[in-house]
Design goal:
With 516 residues, the protein is α+β, with helices and mostly antiparallel strands. The chain is 56% helix and 7% strand. Among the domains are: 149 residues, no CATH class; 194 residues, no CATH class. The termini are far apart.
Length: 516
Amino acid sequence: MMIQKNAGGYLTVYMTLVLSVILSLCLTMIEGARRSAMRMEAEVITDSAMRSVLAEYNRELMRQYNIFAVDSSYGSTVSGMGRTSDRFKEYMEKNYTWETAFPLLSYRDFIGAYPEEAMVTGAVYLTDDKGRIFRECAIEVIRDDLGIEAVEQVIGWTSSADLTAADSMDVYSQMNSEAGEVSGAANAERERREAERASQEAEYEKACLESAEAGTEEPAKPELTELPEEYRSPVSGVSDTAFTGILGLLVDDPENLSRRQLDQNGIISGRMSAGNVNTGNLYPTEQDTGFADEILNKALFDEYLMKYMGNYRNSDSGDVLWYQIEYLIAGKDTDVENLNSVATGIMSIRAGMNMIYLETDSVKKAEAGAIAAAICTACMIEWMTPVLTHAILLAWALVEARYDTATLLAGGKIPFMKDSSSWHSDLDSALAGKSPGSGGDSDSGLSYEDYLRIFLLMTDTEELTLRAMDIIESDIRLSPGNGNFRMDSCIEMIECSAAIKSSYGSRITIQRMLKY
């Protein structure tokens, strides 16, 4: 007998249940992969768009001053974060357009993403915090190019006790003050003796009249008070020519000096004073460095300025000002005024340094003392000999300083502290106001550029930063296509936000910050 069995439907139900679970898992994994790919794509495209924005840095600013920053005006008269935001959105949209990105490929986009929103939400300008951002960029540029030893040497010069003493010593005023004090004493003594002599003569005449009336013998003529010689200041020749037409005395061809002038209208320092500048809405924290690091950073910034800007010894005829470093130090409108101010400063410091040396040279002090003693003795004011000696030494130091400054401007070097072998003027020519000329063949000591470094380190950091930005802005405006260039249009860091939406329903938000 054959037994017949009927198959049940449990296998079909089992497979249906299993496949539905597997299918749900696969669909979930596909959707997860889609969302992960969407996020990865959004991050890559956002980063790419931000880098594309920063890649549009101002080429002339980079070429001349090695500073990377986006000119948010893009050559126009309108600047600000809004124009940069438009560029960012444009790059985002182009990167999400597959026909633009891959024109030779034809396939289906299984992500279906597009930028719903894209904008630059924050920026940092070079001029933010009174130019601190620009200064930090400059320090970063020069730190890789320069040995720290050279900077530390400049710091050592500036912090030396001798230079500090010389800088605080007003040789010219002290000389005139002490010479005037001696002159006043000489005149007072002469007036006192003249009055005493006149009194003696009056008494003698009265005695003669009385004896004549009485018919007695005329009295003997008394010994009258001796009158001193008229005082003639030994430093008058120095006083008359010390700072009169100083550049004419210091340079060989004053007629060839630059006559260029900086137009103060519209430059960044004036706009910042008026509050008419673009400001960023991001605030990078300033590192809290110690005093030593602060001085080092200041010296590094000064060295950046020395490398990328011209001066009297190294100028570029294509710049707005030829003597740019001198402008940073003095802040005057014209090249001649700035050079004159720096030359006067060098001469003052050199006079102080020379005076410090003369105080230690017993031979030169004795020479000056002998002349002072002779003059004071003839004028009968012997007690003023030490004062006049000091005034003569100051005059001598000042004349030697004129030689030093002329030598520096001619390209020579002068020892930081002199000795008898490096001294050039004699006392007789010094008192006549005659400088020994200028050198230029010295191979040891400090150069003109070294003194510029010292003055830069002694100049207020914020003032120096503003003046440096004045120079950069004015120079960049001379280049083609940059007539509207503004330092406060230059963006150094951006913060971007993008909202990416998918046609499959997903939406993500990306926020990034990027700087040079």
